[in-house]
Amino acid sequence: MKRVVVTGMGAITPIGNSVEAFWNGLKEGVVGIKPIDRFDTTEYKAKLAAQVENFVAKDYMDAKSARRMELFSQYAVAATKEAMEQAGLDMEKEDRTRVGCSIGSGIGSLQVIEKECQKLQEKGPARVSPMLVPLMISNMAAGNVAIAYGLKGKCINVVTACATGTHSIGEAYRSIQAGEVDVMVAGGTEAAITPIGVAGFSSLTALSFSDDPKRASIPFDKERNGFIMGEGAGVVVIESLEHAKARGANILAEIVGYGATCDAFHITSPAEDGEGAARAMEFAIKEASADKNDILYINAHGTSTHHNDLFETMAIKNVFGEHAYQMYINSTKSMIGHGLGAAGAIEFITCVKTVTENFIHKTAGYEIPDEECDLNYCKEAVCDQEVVYALSNSLGFGGHNASILVKKYQGE
Question: Which residue intervals define the domain Ketosynthase family 3 (KS3) in the entry (predicted)?
């Protein structure tokens, strides 16, 4: 099985539209949550979201291409541009059939569905746009990225709700390990802060109805009461170590383990003992042949819902035992909300930056400990701890669990 390394990263997030801006925001504890300004929320219980700001599609692609993409695809193409540039991947020198794409979206475009459904009701079926389907479907993020960069290798779209981003990178990792491709552009993207999106999650009682941005997304806090919708994209370039070294690439980190499981329990709630999430972590650690005592940091799924945070805590304890109390656990969602299909990919980028810079960001807004969630959730940032391994968890509606283990690159 081939070793797989990370050579490029790109991000569009509510606290910055580049990896550098995003990472600086995390280091500074910036909370990108504010009142929704994309539609009138007067009749909505949930009034806050973590919106991407100052995004201009034509800064990343030509205007004609942008018009043929919905926002979730635009985010993906924009994040890919940054990742490809950092990786220094010259497609003119690559065998395009050996470069693939694995970019998922949990939902696709709710915006175009809303717009065309209104047309259908008001003007009839003949007025529905012929572009509805190609703009709406979730695989078009991967498709548009592949078209933009001429990626002719394996091209897939993993859809596992909130675990989409992590599964997308994990399956890309597997594809390289198996020798199907040499390089994969991988990640997740989402843009679902729309009337129907917010209304749907509100009716599910999954969202926080807090009106205080600083106390809305508060993972593991005793007063947590739901997640805050986020959006954006995270895209990485990963490749076989052999390929990266042959082209003289700057290696950022190594992927050493990946686990994917299912709870087979409930459509929205994780398994009550965290068993499925625990198995995913176990698989990732076993694949890496890592000593659990050497793993000190977990980027948790940490949604700020009661069940998720409790059951994820139980899963961590089940895997690590007493060592769990020596670990640092944080939630990036405390600052950027829950990016749904983009979340795991953006959090993967956080893990790579954590092992390269030995900085663990705080869980913003975490103030009141919960006796049932009694681990170290990083009330303050940690800047004096070497981080060799970073374990990232994602848990999706439907019982989907994914864990991916990132390691500081230490050469041969």
Answer: 1-408
For range 277-295, the mean pLDDT: 98
303 to 52, 98, 218, 285, 337: CA distances (angstroms): 19, 36, 8, 23, 8
Q: Would you say 296 and 326 are in contact if contact means Cβ atoms under 8 Å apart?
A: yes
Question: What does the pLDDT look like over 246-263, one tens digit per residue?
Answer: 999 999 999 999 999 999
Q: Is 141 exposed, middle or buried (0-12, 13-18, 19+ CB in 10 A)?
A: buried
Structure tokens at 39: 């539609």
Tell me what the mean pLDDT of segment 55-60 comes to. Answer: 96
Percent of the chain with pLDDT over 70: 100
Q: Is the four-CA dihedral 346, 256, 308, 198 of positive or negative sign?
A: positive
Q: How far apart are CA 340 and CA 156, in angstroms?
A: 18
Q: What is the pLDDT of residues 361-407, one digit of tens each?
A: 999 999 999 999 999 999 999 998 999 999 999 999 999 999 999 99
Core vs surface per residue 204-237: b (16+ CB within 10 A) or e = eebbbebeebebbbbbbbeebbbbbbbbbbbbbb
Q: Which of 145, 133, 237, 251 is nearest to 189 (CA)?
A: 145
Catalytic amino acids?
Answer: 162
In angstroms and rounded to an integer, the radius of gyration of the C-alpha atoms of the chain is: 20
Burial of 152 (0-12, 13-18, 19+ CB in 10 A): middle
3-state class percentages of the chain: helix first, strand second, coil last, to nearest 5: 40, 20, 40
- pTM of structure: 0.98
CB atoms closer than 10 angstroms to residue 127: 10
- In the block, tokens 């405390």 appear at 334
CA angle 155, 160, 163 (to 5 degrees): 105
Q: Residues with Cβ < 8 Å from 373, sequence gap 6 or more?
A: 220, 222, 309, 310, 313
Closest C-alpha to 141, from 101, 175, 99: 101
Closest by alpha carbon to 48, among 223, 226, 306? 226
